[in-house]
Amino acid sequence: MTIWQEGMIRLARSEQVTAFAQRQPWLTGLADRFVGGATITQARSSAAELAGDGITATLFYLGEYVSDPELISTTLTELEAAITATAEASLDVCVSVDPTQIGLMVDAQTCTSNALDLARAVRAAATQPRVGHDALIIDMEDASVTDATIDLYWSLRAEDLPTAITIQAYLHRTPADLGRLITAGAWVRLVKGAFAEPADIAVRSAVDRDSRYRRCASQLLGRAAREAGVYPSFATHDHRLIEEIITQAEAQGWPADAFEFEMLYGVRPDLQRELSRRGYRVRVYLPFGTDWFPYAVRRVGESPRNLRFVAAALTRRGAAPGGGW
Ligand SMILES: Cc1cc2nc3c(=O)[nH]c(=O)nc-3n(C[C@H](O)[C@H](O)[C@H](O)COP(=O)(O)OP(=O)(O)OC[C@H]3O[C@@H](n4cnc5c(N)ncnc54)[C@H](O)[C@@H]3O)c2cc1C
Question: Do 303 and 204 belong to one domain?
């Protein structure tokens, strides 16, 4: 992780900066770029627009590491509204959730109970949930909650509910976790991993992260995975890795509709559309809600080029930002 990225993560964690930034109308350009809308109605329109380019979406209600019961309840209400709205619009019924948004900061039981309710809502709204279309996708947060998150996934599977799990390639434990998920024919979203974990838990350099990602992608595209009915979702914007995965999938006989690429809303939209035009399945992670600053500023951390959206907002405003900025 670079100093720049660590700086942006620190900014994202500052409640004062977040409160200030979210009140600034001149920063809405940044929100518009990376967030699909403040409300579910706007998010559904953004998802419908993507569908016009053959791209599916998974909706995510902004907010993380929540322990306030009222906020947990709001998150559940918003996600249930997203489930209903996407079903009504004949879109994939697919929502992503951080376990710490829905009660893991309270206790594992609360979180499991809320996740069960959401996955049941997906099953009811989608009527016959299809793998690769309809699911409650569980995001993976920092290493302190990896075990609890994987346990949560198995609780949903035990009830035969439509679900998928995010797995971080940088963790040393991942090949073993993937082994169990492959045997169970899981829908697995593979990411590189976004947290600054210590060396005894994860690899730390970008080169090592990429090589771990390659190895995990090979595991997910292996014959055992294909035979078990695994649905791999390769969540990365790394075009070199994407081309390698396409080559490998073709060599291993995976049809183009048996796996997908997943990217963040507003990140490499050119690449998203190009892959879709070439006949590959593309899903976009589409956040919505009003608590947008921590999420958007982390995207700037991942690629300093995204500062241009802040610069564009400033140009439109015609003045320099004040305060802590
Ligand atoms: C759908 C999705 C879900 C995710 N869920 C999780 C999760 O649950 N847990 C978790 O730990 N991590 C999650 N991540 C984040 C992931 O772990 C990586 O930190 C993040 O995707 C950056 O890695 P990368 O492979 O995309 O690109 P990098 O290796 O960072 O960069 C490769 C290239 O991708 C492009 N790129 C990458 N990011 C950006 C950007 N923001 N703007 C413009 N270009 C960019 C650039 O061209 C760059 O050169 C998720 C990512 C995606 C796409």
Answer: no
